[in-house]
């Protein structure tokens, strides 16, 4: 059984949006710097990271009135990650108090991950951020496609929670799943040393990493969700455009299949 007091830790709620065709990351960084200078608001230094063709800009300023949604006593930090293929990831990182009982923390975590309204205020924030991007956002689109994910991270033994408790926290099933189902749903359990652990489920993941500065696993999970979001966008485009392509193919004379295929590939 876990100890009465929750181990030090946090949960990061990610909401990713497809906002346009591309984002000029260099121009976005200049826009952020100009905006920060204009508002004269305090903030930490920007840290830039990359994976493939993606970069993270952690200094994006967002409206303070949208940040008052943390549970009582919890500390909230909000940042944004921009991907040059037109995706914005909003991050809401909440740290629970060091002395809060685990029985309270687990209930709040489950509510944040599985029943929270943070998606609503993320919608407001992404509109503000898209406005801040200005010309750095090319071919802006109405924000209609999004992807959500959550990552729990704490400084504790990798086996601090029982498997049943971990399954309840990540899956939030009303009834405990049978061992086979639980192992299948939590089967992506990765460990490199005896001190770290990553458990990847569909809606959320647990990350245990003793080095507080090492956030590589979180960034990879975020990048994977950004790619998943793009696949959803392309799937939606196919749903819209396939009927027109099929109608064009039906009208094409016989013997022009090669030419028709070449023209339809430009859709």
Low-confidence stretches: 39-61, 257-267
Number of strands: 11
Strand content: 15-25%
Rg value: 22 Å
The span between the termini is 57 Å
Strand and helix order? EEHEEEEHHEEHHEEEHH
Using the alpha-carbon principal axes, give the shape: globular
**Major sheet: size, sense and barrel closure?**
7 strands, mixed
Mean pLDDT: 77
Number of helices: 7
Oligomer: single chain
- Percent of residues in helices: 25-40%
Structural class by helix and strand composition: alpha+beta
Q: How do the strands of the widest beta sheet line up side by side?
A: 5-6-1-8-11-10-9
Number of domains: 1
Walkthrough of the structure:
The protein is 39% helix and 24% strand. It is an alpha+beta fold. It has one domain. A hairpin with a 2-residue loop joins strand 3 and strand 4. The longest helix is centred in the C-terminal third of the chain and has 36 residues. The protein starts with 8 loop residues before the first strand and ends with a helix.
Task: Provide a compact summary of the structure.
This protein has 267 residues and is α+β, with helices and mostly antiparallel strands. It has 7 helices and 11 strands. The strands form 3 sheets. Strands 5-6-1-8-11-10-9 form a 7-stranded mixed sheet, with helices on both faces. Strands 2-7 form a two-stranded antiparallel ribbon.
Features:
two-stranded antiparallel ribbon; globular; about 270 residues; alpha+beta; about 40% helix; about 25% strand; seven-stranded mixed β-sheet; disordered C terminus
